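Exam revision sheet. Question 4 asks you to relate a sequence to its structure. Input first:
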Amino acid sequence: MSASGSDLRSSETERMLSIHLTDRCNNRCQFCVVDSPSILKDLVSRERVLSFLEENAGHGYLGVNLHGGEATTRRDFLEILTAIRDLGYPTVILQTNARKLSRPDFARTCVDLGVEKFVVSVHGSRSAVHDAITQVPNSLRHAVHGIRNVKALGAHVRTNSVVSELNYTDLPDIMSLVVDLGVDHINISALHTQGTAMKNFHQVTPRYRDIEPYVAQAVRRVVASGTVLTLEGFPFCTITGNEHHVVDWDRQKFKMLFRNNVLDDYEEYMDHAMRVHGSPCVGCPQRVRCGGVYKEYIDAFGWDEFVPAGGGSRA
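Answer key, structure tokens:
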């Protein structure tokens, strides 16, 4: 689950709604944070989604960010897009694996109903990596066609690549792929080991010390291309020199509907419920901005590899 559908860069805080539309997905990602591969019954009702939209209409929210699971798998997905438009929300952001967007007619319908930004998951530069993670043949091919379809319609595309044990050596080449596709914004995310990722913890969870050089190389490739880049979920001391690329949550506030729960400030919830700081963080000059480390990672590996940002090498 990620709320960061926006790449807004204004000096003022941008207020958005974020809605977890479904627990179901047509991929079976080995690190799915909401455990979609194991979901047998969807817990997200249309009535609750519509009431959330109605309750917040006219209260200054600049748009609605839709995610799941895979939001496009809902039978009433287009009806929900219509409701968002009719309630007067200025824009829609869709987080998606883009498989259904590989159909040109579906891509056009989404754009016509107000989706202006598509956040597409790309976890491999080739099918051998991406499709192994999603456990669905041709899922990378579908994602690439989906990106091309919505770009041809004039939509904004942001890709998201989650760094895992299954793909971290491929990360620089993933960046080359999405740059060549002409996407507008690239996001690289640290793995959050909940859901299916927790079940597959040791198969999917990389050590930060192992992935750091690959993340740095990936960043250099994106920066050289001139494409907008953000990093999400990384402790600052694991991305030394690239801290300025971290998503600025002070400028992006998301009120989220997650199943039947409303999170008034998604990032505040993540800071208090999902991430921790430890003794290496004391005195760190980045302490105020850094969100810390996911709890599950520390439970498994401890604090030995972390040092204050700029404070030396890790073990």
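Marking note for examiners. Confidence is low (pLDDT under 50) at residues 5-11.
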